[in-house]
Amino acid sequence: MGIANIIFIVVLLAAVVLFARNVGKIRRNIKLGKDVDRSDNKPERWKTMIRVALGQSKMVVRPVAGIMHIFIYLGFVIINLEVLEIVIDGALGTHRVFAFLGGFYDFLIGSFEILAVLVLVSCIVFFARRNLIALKRFKNPEMKGWPSLDGNLILIIEILLMSAFLSMNASDYLLQARGVEHYTAAGAFPVSSMIAPIFSGMTDAGLVALERFTWWFHIVGILAFLNYLVISKHFHIILAFPNTFYSNLNAKGRFTNMEAVTREVKMMMDPNADPYAAPDPNAPPPEQFGAKDVTDLNWVQLMNAYSCTECGRCTSECPANQTGKLLSPRKIMMDVRDRVEEVGKNIDANKGEFKEDGKSLLNDYITPEELWACTSCNACTQACPINIDPLSIIVDMRRYLVMEQSAAPMELNLMMSNVENNGAPWQFPAADRANWINE
Amino acid sequence: MAEDKIIVPTMAEMTARGEKPDVLFWVGCAGSFDDRAKKITKAFVKLLNKANVSFAVLGAEESCSGDPAKRAGNEFLFQMQAVTNIEVLNAYEVNKIVTACPHCFNTLKNEYPELGGDYDVVHHTQLLQQLLDDGKLTIEGGNFKGKKITFHDPCYLGRGNGVYEAPRELIAKLDAELVEMRRCKTRGLCCGAGGAQMFKEAEKGDKEVNIERTEEALETKPNIIATGCPFCNTMMTDGVKNKEKEGEVTVMDVAELIANAGDL
């Protein structure tokens, strides 16, 4: 074992430890959300995860982006098998330790190369879609600054990683052909053998340097990228799985029932209840209705926010957004993540206790105007490739506005007082309800 | 309308006679009070009469399902409405409910069970399809033969509850040409009325949702824009008027199409 191997092991361990620590923080942040029971119907949950996350069934609704996304996804999953070999080679100083697999190894390396090209092409196309073609949904106001940079950085990093991978193989291929010591012949190189002529003028030492540089660049790049995930929208590659597993399995039209309200309504309707009864001194303090801040949301909603990769399919299908309203379901998810991150940092800075910062998700991040633009049509939840539910957040925040602040738009207050007084959203006497029969 | 008299028993009347209908027709607020929607209600009742369906309405005992209150975030008002309605429905031992309003349909079907109201709830297009399949109702006459009809999916029927085919199969039975809009079924665009928007001005924007949707419907060059929701009907009708196409294009409920296929 040489000094290079020791450096490699140290870098590897540091990257893994740092990643685990930051994932732990995200986990803690998600658990700031209220409890919600999603442990029912496990078979259906597994099926949903396999179909939607693993099978990418909702991605291909838009075929061009969908198929290219599958290339990148397969590339990511399959080429990472190669990372296992790289890690062992790096730790032990071996060269292509799985070469004993023979023909199967050739097949593996060959397929990785083809996938790498597909990933490269897809990333370049995606980069062009974001920057040259400038699709509308990548240009919404919420995408200004970091979100756009984040999207581009991910693509650039992937392009660099794939280029390093193919250059590494190309130099390896030449070194193997030249019979240079340590570079025992192993693997099939359908793609890099075509790149190899670019480097064929180089000396053996130059090629070894190139091979080592690209090898290190590739693996350190992957470890750095791993740690980039936690601050990036790209974290979806991990959370897409639990996010689909715990997604809402009920009919989309069904909104949650508020138990706290049911208790009060039942009491109000109970003819035996004593209206003058003193409140039970042991009763828990009355619950706040609806969501004002991220801690009023449930953990699935917070996980949704960390799972969102800001693709904007929700926003591009949203009728309100299409007609120029302020509402963007994607922004709702981004705001929730930004706010929960802010709350998390506050907790870290104050020895594990949240210190009131005078801010909240409502108003400081999401305005009532956005919330009131929603038609609750479920286009956003249908469009989301990983079953994120912005609508449930909008509804929870409307509940806070209406039930805690009585801050509904005036016309809605009118509608609600009609429902309350005459059992219809319009001002018609309840007694006239059956008049249509004889009209 | 003397020649096509409708027979609409109420639950109270039937119960007084010691009878119980097979199905309760939940008319809904729009179907009871809105002039346009009342025509849909009557068309549907004619079909129920024709198919000899044993049904009744609650009449003055019906009250808002609470849908707009719930969508607006007023869970209190919603639950007050729901619990009151459930008391009435349970007192009449109602098992099966049909409604021509996807909002009532969704609320009764999905949101009442947790509050003690468990019923078999169907949308009127589903019941009509069943009646036609069972031969209890036949389409006579071909008033819509060869007509181009596009169907606008109500959100709470389609995406909300996965009912896409029943209304389409009914349209197919008219020998009409069903032309789909660019965005239909799971990707259908909202009419703009859902989520209690029906009762308020839209937030500031550069276009009304119903205009966007109507333009898309008109792209299919239809004779008729069909839908299955009184609110969608209002929104699309307004859209057609806005585009000054009311002379060429009519907005109709699927029940009206079936009822008018042969001058019923």
List the keywords.
heterodimer; A: 439 residues; mainly alpha; Fumarate Reductase Iron-sulfur Protein, Chain B, domain 2; 60% helix; elongated; B: 264 residues; alpha/beta; Rossmann fold; 11 helices; 8 strands; 11% strand
Write structural notes for this entry.
The complex is a heterodimer of chains A (439) and B (264). By secondary structure, chain A is mainly α. Chain A has 18 helices and no strands. Chain A starts with a helix and ends in a 17-residue tail after the last helix. By secondary structure, chain B is of the alpha/beta class. Chain B folds into 2 domains: 11-130, Rossmann fold, CATH 3.40.50.1860; 139-260, Rossmann fold, CATH 3.40.50. Chain B has helices at 11-16, 28-33, 35-50, 67-72, 75-91, 102-111, 124-133, 165-172, 209-219, 230-242, 254-260; strands spanning 23-26, 55-56, 96-99, 120-123, 148-151, 177-178, 224-227, 250-253. In chain B, strand 5, helix 8 (165-172) and strand 6 (177-178) form a beta-alpha-beta unit. The N and C termini of chain B lie close together (12 Å). At the A-B interface, helix 9, helix 12, helix 16, helix 17 and helix 18 of A face helix 2, helix 3, helix 4, helix 5 and helix 6 of B.
